[in-house]
Design a protein that fits this description.
The protein is an alpha/beta fold and 238 residues long. It has 8 helices and 12 strands. α6 crosses α7. The longest helix is centred in the middle third of the chain and has 15 residues.
Length: 238
């Protein structure tokens, strides 16, 4: 999973980063609220850990900006020393999914993170994923469309499965790159574009087939499920 931590205390940032990396997550740390906001305008994350008191803006203001102006529903957990009932109510009103009082405890925090992610992105208990005519066997890394197998490379399969797991979400190129290839600075984001093109073609992700895989300029891609009978979903011939 790809996490963002917005925390201005270096010691706290170091501890949280270590815990999350030990749990197998990719972590991006931000000490300034506006720095995170700039990045969040072009990148996506699976979960946010947000400190309440930040230089310039509060965590509450950052989250309200994300929810209202960016229409972004990425799960978020507040981590703060403020524990008054009114503060907790304000955090949830701003769009928080959970609230942890400092100092956080490792096992409790990781458990709360798992619970939030479970609610946001429920996993298939049988290691399979079926969406319409697309059936993924996640253990064997095979894909069938209406019972017919599709020949995919490992990376094409992982990319397709990640897109279908996140159906409807706008995913940045950096997010897709980390999810499928890991944090590899030698890989360019055009690697994602090339594989997206192959996946779109091999899976026939077209509006007339009920799906639309579209790019968003200077950000990434979104896979959407649509009704092919709607006039707006019909592609006119060139």
């Amino acid at each position: 999973m790809r996490f963002a931590i917005i925390e201005d205390d270096p010691a706290q940032m170091e501890v949280l980063t270590a815990w999350l990396k030990e749990a197998g997550h990719d972590v991006h740390g931000f000490t300034l609220a506006r720095e995170f906001m700039r990045v969040a305008s072009r990148e996506s994350f699976d979960l946010l850990l947000v400190d309440w008191m930040l230089p310039g803006l509060t965590g509450e203001q950052v989250l309200r900006w994300l929810r209202v102006e960016r229409n972004n529903d990425t799960p978020a957990i507040f981590i703060t020393s403020r524990d008054a009932e009114e503060d907790i109510a304000n955090a949830f009103s701003a769009g928080a999914d959970d609230y942890v009082v400092k100092p956080p405890r490792r096992i409790e925090l990781l458990s709360r993170i798992e619970a939030v992610l479970r609610r946001a992105q429920p996993k298939s208990p049988n290691q399979t994923l079926t969406v319409g005519v697309y059936h993924f066997d996640l253990a064997k890394k095979t894909l069938g469309i209406d019972g017919t197998g599709v020949d995919l490379t490992d990376k094409e399969f992982e990319l397709a499965a990640f897109l279908f797991r996140n159906l409807g979400r706008l995913l940045s190129r950096g997010h897709l790159l980390e999810a499928v290839w890991g944090r590899n600075p030698s890989l360019a984001t055009r690697t994602v574009d090339t594989h997206i093109s192959r996946v779109r073609s091999k899976l026939n992700l077209r509006p007339e087939n009920g799906f639309r895989l579209t790019p968003t300029y200077n950000f990434g891609y979104r896979l959407e499920r649509i009704d092919p009978s709607e006039p707006s979903a019909v592609v006119s011939p060139d």
